[in-house]
Design goal:
Length: about 100
C-alpha cells in the first residue's frame, strides 16, 4: 500500500488544476462576450445617431422642396409647347 500513498494528494492537486483551468476558461469567455456586447452597444448608438441625422436631412430637404415648389410649377407651365398634338401615340407608350 505504500505505492499508492501519493494518490490522495494527487487527486487534490488534480482537482485544483481542473478548477483553475475551468475558471480561466470562463474568464476568457466572459472577456470576449463582454467585448462583443460593448462593441454591439457602440454600433447601435452610432446607428441611432445616423438615423437622427438622416431624419434631420429629410426634414430640411422637404422644407427646401416646399420652398422651391411654386417656382417649379410656373417654370413647367411655361415649358409646355402650345402646338402639341394630342393624337400622337408616342406620348402614350411607356418608355423602358
Amino acid at each position: 500500500m505504500n505505492a499508492f500513498e501519493w494518490l490522495p494528494g494527487a487527486i487534490n492537486i488534480l482537482s485544483l488544476v481542473v478548477s483553475g483551468g475551468v475558471l480561466l476558461l470562463v474568464a476568457v469567455l466572459w472577456f470576449f462576450i463582454n467585448r462583443a456586447s460593448v462593441r454591439a452597444s457602440e454600433q447601435i448608438a452610432l446607428l441611432e445617431q445616423l438615423i437622427d441625422l438622416q431624419k434631420r436631412q429629410n426634414s430640411l430637404l422637404r422644407r427646401l422642396c416646399e420652398a422651391n415648389e411654386p417656382d417649379t410649377i410656373v417654370e413647367k407651365k411655361q415649358e409646355v409647347p402650345q402646338d402639341r398634338d394630342d393624337s400622337d401615340l408616342v406620348g402614350m407608350i411607356a418608355e423602358r
